[in-house]
Amino acid sequence: MASGALAHLTLSQTHVFCEESAAPVIKSYSLDPMVHPLLPSSNTTTRNADLIDMKELVGPIINMLSSLYCLVIGPGLGTVPITWQPVSEVMRKARGRLIPFVLDADGLKLVKKMLDLVKAVALDIEKIMSESPDKTDDYRAQDAKIVGKLAEALGGVTILRKGSYDVILNGLASLIQDTEGGMKHSGGQGDTLKGSLGTLMSWGASYHDRLWDSGENDSDQGSGGRIPLMKKRDIEREIESDMRLSPTAFCLLVAWAGSGITRECSRGVYKAEGCSMQASDLTSQVHDSFLL
């Protein structure tokens, strides 16, 4: 469903990397995505993960990175170490080339296990998330403080915390997405969110490379290369003005927009289908929701 959302939100081609036994199942959903059965799993190999030649295994995927704009990591990944090793190697190579990731589900478990994928520090995630909020704050401010600490500890990544309203933070600035969604949340709706985020992040590569004239004024944060250090007021100034967005501000708006698209999809499907709605129904609503 994530690849379906990518396609319905204007991407011309999506690639799905999976293990061999999953390929025919994924392909049976749709002829649109290019399916590559390149990843190992405990079902398709009896070799110990430490004995696998990772360079040979991930070579075909790494060779494709030059034509990929964003990686969506997590849906269907699983938690088997023999799968995690090649995926983590691809993530390191992609990070070195400034290719963004969208992480969810088992992808978050992978990062928790290998923190160097985002920032090489020791970090007690459970301790941060279990901290008692300041009771003088309202519930939204409490969420923002706790998740903001986690985003900052992870090196300034952008976090989208899903809930009755969605909180988007990067340790400096925050946004709230509270567009009305459907009255039913079907398991799997997150795939629409991940697909939407992946598409919007892919657009970012072209935006920062200035492949079209956006009509915005240049900011002093630059448009490419390494992401510059920014302060909260810099991000707020970009978002609220007609300045060209830095990668940092762009990520915040991508998360806010992707969340809004998903919520609008859910609202539209629930209006049409009621409680019989399924997560797969959201895909057909993606394009119309984006136009709204």
Describe the structure.
- This protein is mainly α and 292 residues long.
- It has one domain (1-209, 229-291): Ribokinase (UDP-N-acetylmuramoyl-L-alanine:D-glutamate ligase, 3-Layer(aba) Sandwich).
- It is built from 11 helices and 7 strands.
- The strands form 3 sheets. It has a 3-stranded antiparallel β-sheet, sandwiched between helices. Strands 1-2 form a two-stranded parallel sheet.
- Strand 6 (166-169) and strand 7 form a beta hairpin.
- The longest helix has 27 residues, at 247-273.
- The protein starts with a helix and ends with a helix.
- Mean pLDDT is 83; it is low at 222-226.
- It comes from Aspergillus homomorphus (strain CBS 101889).
- This is Ribokinase-like protein.
- One of its GO terms (molecular function) is ATP-dependent NAD(P)H-hydrate dehydratase activity.
Major sheet, described briefly?
Answer: 3 strands, antiparallel
Secondary-structure element order, as H and E? HEHEHEHEHHHEEEHHHH
Provide the gyration radius in Å.
19 Å
**Could you state the CATH homologous superfamily?**
Ribokinase
Low-confidence stretches: 222-226
Distance between the termini: 21 Å
The class by helix and strand makeup works out as mainly alpha
- Write down the domain tally: 1
Query: Strand sequence of the main sheet, in spatial order?
Result: 5-6-7
Identify the CATH architecture. Answer: 3-Layer(aba) Sandwich
CATH class: Alpha Beta
CATH topology: UDP-N-acetylmuramoyl-L-alanine:D-glutamate ligase
Global geometry: globular
E-strand count: 7
Task: State which percent range the strand residues make up.
Answer: 5-15%
